[in-house]
Amino acid sequence: MFSLALDTVRKFTLPVIFSRRYRKGEIVSSLGTFIVVNTDGWILTADHIVADILKFSESQNEMQRHDQQRKAIESDPDLKDKEKRRRIQKLPVVNSWITNQAVLWAYHPWAMSKVFRDPLADVALIQLSSFDPDRVPVYPVFKNPGVEFRVGTSLCRLGHPFHDIKATFDFAKGFELDPATFPIAQFPNDGILTRFILKNAPDGSRQVRFIETSTAGLRGQSGGPIFDRDGFLYAVQSQTTSLPLGFMPTVKQGSREIVEHQFMHLGWGSHIQHAVDLMTKNDVAFSMQP
């Protein structure tokens, strides 16, 4: 059903990998998905991916403040050495501080430059610097949000799940990804449009919409497209929610009886209206179904 659409959609759906080193030396890598919008290097992805990447800047600022406070204590002529050590030891130190980070937007040297975010709708619009349009042969066509989105419509999701990204870090060379990381295969999963989910801003000033699908979004698919069999984009994959089914069978494990709660896992995608609004507001060219 989606084979022809996938021939097109897979060409503008690409992976983003970010690797980071934490204060204690732990190396962690994560994988997401993004959608290339046009030849100027504009892309769409989930805002929570951008928020995660920006944690590096937050960590750098916190570490800089810590360093400034430490130096101020060390240079204080009114303090004895014992008191200096005591005050320095009391300065907050957080093991989750990110000391080093590298982000790979599919191809080197593509890098995030301009960023426009909509955290409530979980969608972000980004322009990549050093973008090479020859890498992307076709670009998406967005479902017209002014046309009815019908419950029961068959939809497909595409992204990059089932990858265990491993990296090493050297202070001289930086991050190096395990060669087994590549190639990064794509994985589609289909379902139907089940409902529209409304989410309100905490202050009640705004309401956003998500499209719910009968299948779950998978780790690594965040930021990827949700599209129909004609390839029109309906949403940007955001998250998975788990709804209790209301029955709990008892299962024996050795001598113990375990109650297993049953859930249905459903996907939520940021309604394409919010991506269209971001692109329109920032004069980004895109194609839309009439």
Written overview of the protein:
A hairpin with a 5-residue loop joins β2 (27-36) and β3. It contains 5 helices and 18 strands. α3 runs antiparallel to α4 (81-90). By secondary structure, the protein is α+β, with helices and mostly antiparallel strands. The strands form 4 sheets. The chain has a 6-stranded antiparallel β-sheet with strand order 4-1-2-3-6-5. Strands 8-11-12-17-14-13 form a 6-stranded antiparallel beta barrel. 19% of the residues lie in helices and 41% in strands. The protein has helices spanning 3-9, 47-53, 55-74, 81-90, 272-281; strands at 13-22, 27-36, 42-45, 98-105, 111-118, 123-129, 141-142, 154-159, 167-170, 174-177, 187-200, 207-213, 225-227, 232-244, 250-253, 256-259, 263-271, 287-288. The model has no long low-confidence stretch (mean pLDDT 95). It has a single domain (3-288), classed as Thrombin, subunit H, CATH 2.40.10. The longest helix has 20 residues, at 55-74.
Proportion in helices? 10-25%
Which secondary-structure class do the elements indicate? alpha+beta
Task: Tell the overall outline.
Answer: globular
Mean pLDDT: 95
Order of strands in the sheet with the most strands? 4-1-2-3-6-5
Secondary-structure element sequence? HEEEHHHEEEEEEEEEEEEEEHE
Reading off the top of the CATH hierarchy, the class is best stated as Mainly Beta
